[in-house]
Amino acid sequence: MHDLIDIGANLTHDSFDADRAAVIAAAAAVGVKRQIITGADAGGSQQALQLAQEYPGKLWATAGVHPHHAKDYGADTDALLRELSTKDPVVAVGEMGLDYFRNFSSHEEQEHAFDAQLQIAVEVQKPVFLHQRDGHGAFVAILKNHIDELNGGVAHCFTGTKEEMKVYLDMGLYVGVTGWICDERRGHDLQEAVKYLPLDRIMLETDAPYLLPRNLSKEQKKAINGRRNEPSLLPHVLETTAGLMGVTAEELAAAATRNTEALFGLV
């Protein structure tokens, strides 16, 4: 059993309403004793903080607005995020960034919300929890305006190429790897990129309940609730990633845990 931290679990999602405590316990039973709960909109960020407060020393939270919800980012949301981001269990500002794949909010709305949240992160000096899909150029351009004043960050749920990864590494970011790496259809870029990812820059996450690893065994599939991804599957992401990186699971687990503790100040 490895000591693992899931840096991105959406445990406030309604799919966990009936068994959230059991899901947290199941993760701890396989070594995932600590998790960071993602805040993706105003309400979800409040819920993430409340959940973290219920499990001190086990759960932490982020506070932010995902680009899907950028159209709802106004003065009230900005004020709320500023307040939430000062709370001790909130260890990062985000999930923030750009998503030009879905475009549930316009590019202008996404870019405004992204820039505004970067300003909050600079002010409170907490790391940023970043999301980028199909918007790499604009994402980097906005991030560069603030990067020198930020207190670090992680490219959450990275799915890009090794060239894109190098840009993030050169900016001093960590890289979060999810079960996307287990996808034989879409994961080729990531599978190649992690071969060049230094051990001192990697973090591990499930993005539960999303991104259920596609290469689970029949026994593993039986152990979970339908097609819902869970933090208890983080060891599977670990094993798959370690194999591609050419390191042992023990080495990768230790490095990812060390990196996560360092960036987010976990104890």
Provide a brief overview of the structure.
The protein has 267 residues and is an alpha/beta fold.
Description:
The protein has one domain (4-264): TIM Barrel, CATH 3.20.20.140. The chain is 40% helix and 16% strand. The protein has helices at 20-29, 42-54, 75-84, 107-124, 136-144, 162-170, 188-193, 218-222, 234-245, 249-264, and strands at 4-9, 32-37, 59-63, 90-99, 128-133, 153-155, 174-177, 202-204. The relative contact order is 0.15. The protein has 10 helices and 8 strands. The longest helix has 18 residues, at 107-124. The protein is an alpha/beta fold and 267 residues long. Helix 1 (20-29) links the parallel strand 1 and strand 2 (32-37). The protein has an 8-stranded parallel β-sheet with strand order 1-2-3-4-5-6-7-8. The mean pLDDT is 96.
For this entry, give a set of tags.
single chain, 267 residues, alpha/beta, TIM Barrel, 8-stranded parallel β-sheet, 10 helices, 8 strands, 40% helix, 16% strand
End-to-end separation? 20 Å
Spell the H/E element sequence: EHEHEHEHEHEHEHEHHH
**Number of structural domains:** 1
Identify the CATH homologous superfamily: Metal-dependent hydrolases
Strand % is 15-25%
Mean pLDDT: 96
Question: At CATH's second level, what is the architecture?
Answer: Alpha-Beta Barrel
Q: Ranges with pLDDT <50 over ≥5 residues?
A: none
What is the global morphology? globular
| Strand neighbour order, sheet with most strands | 1-2-3-4-5-6-7-8
The secondary-structure class comes to alpha/beta
* Main sheet record: 8 strands, parallel
Radius of gyration: 17 Å
Number of strands: 8
Q: What percent of residues adopt helix (DSSP H or I)?
A: 40-55%
